[in-house]
Amino acid sequence: MELQFLGCGSAFNPLLGNTSSYIEIGRHLYLIDAGESVFYKLFKEEILKRNEEITIFITHMHGDHIGSLASIISYCYFVLRKKVSVVYPKDDLWKLLNLMGIASSIYDRLECYAFKNDEIKMRAISVKHADDISCYGYIMEWEGKKIYYSGDSYEIPQDIYKDFMAGNIDRIYQDTTEFKTSHLSHLPLEELEKCIPVNLRNKVFCIHFTTDFANKLKEKGFQYVKV
Ligand SMILES: [Zn+2]
């Protein structure tokens, strides 16, 4: 199964839904991020209902990435009788959930950089997004595929870039912004153009849009996620 998307917008474009993606393998849902619009989409499409196991990977704690996490956890526990696992490398998230009335007993905290089972391998990579918040991308491996998912980040980490150029990473999903501003938090398209050669751009999928620049991306040979 390919990575599916529930939304491809940034925090300031709720019409596109918050950027969040998932894979279902067997009846196990692997979800990346749970922004404000995500619970609504999961509920509407009965994705939580139809899966037996639910594992949620969080890239960082901005509202458009964790805004509905608390509701997802409590809905799964109290209504569906399912205990969600949440993967995040630091303990800040548990503290926040605790302040939001989500007891540690109703979900499983997996405070780690690496997650692995028979179906999937995920590894968190520290990325640069904002000075005051930690952010992680994820290397994901399943069904013989290996992809890099940037989370929110204004650069592609050097090791990831080298691996991609060497053909060891099949695909990149990259947070991309149309314009460059003095305050970097997402990767400007012009920077992406500088580092990705034209012949490899069909392996780079842009995500997390504030503006609609699909035509520009198409012209330059990049892929983009549409929901
Ligand atoms: Zn962010």
Overview of this structure, please?
This is Ribonuclease Z. GO terms for molecular function: 3'-tRNA processing endoribonuclease activity. The protein is α/β, with parallel strands linked by helices. The chain has a single domain, classed as Metallo-beta-lactamase, Chain A. The chain is 24% helix and 32% strand. It is built from 8 helices and 14 strands. The strands form 2 sheets. Strands 7, 8, 9, 10, 11, 12, 13 and 14 form an 8-stranded mixed sheet that branches. The protein has a 6-stranded mixed sheet with strand order 1-2-3-4-5-6. Strand 9 and strand 10 (145-149) form a beta hairpin. The longest helix is centred in the first third of the chain and has 10 residues, at 69-78. It starts with a strand and ends with a strand. The mean pLDDT is 97. Bound molecules: zinc ion (ZN). Zinc ion is lined by residues 60, 62, 129, 152.
